[in-house]
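Sample entry copied in:
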Amino acid sequence: MFLFLIVPFGAMGGYLSVAIGYQLTQAGVSVEEVAALVAFSYLPQTWKFLWAPIADTTLSRKTWYLLAGAVSALGIFATGAVPADERSLPLLYAAVLVSNVAVTFLAMATESLTRTPWRWQRESSTESYPRWAASSAGTAAIGWTARRRTRCTVC
């Protein structure tokens, strides 16, 4: 269930770095400028701890999720609607900033939902099993992929 809730978070980054990045490079925008735009999109993730207290103390998680989902959907639309050329980069930067700030609120709402206690969780556990399992599986998959892609003689 949580997979579907966090999809806009991944869709935002994927759409920008793949589809919009391709369109911009085909329109003559340099790879450096496209990379700077993609890097700029991660800036709200770096600073989301500043507005996390707002999400924690004001509206409900459901309300934050719905608002952030609507703003991020409009942001994805605006990112695609802006002409893919060098003159439109400032407008594209603004759309990317607003939509990625919205996505941080969406992610915070989803992350708080994953912290709800489960029936099968031990009472004394301070960490939920789904979070541990996802983290372990992700780490194992990354390690397995890295090992297969590199020719490490020690591994």
The chain has two domains: 2-113, 128-155.
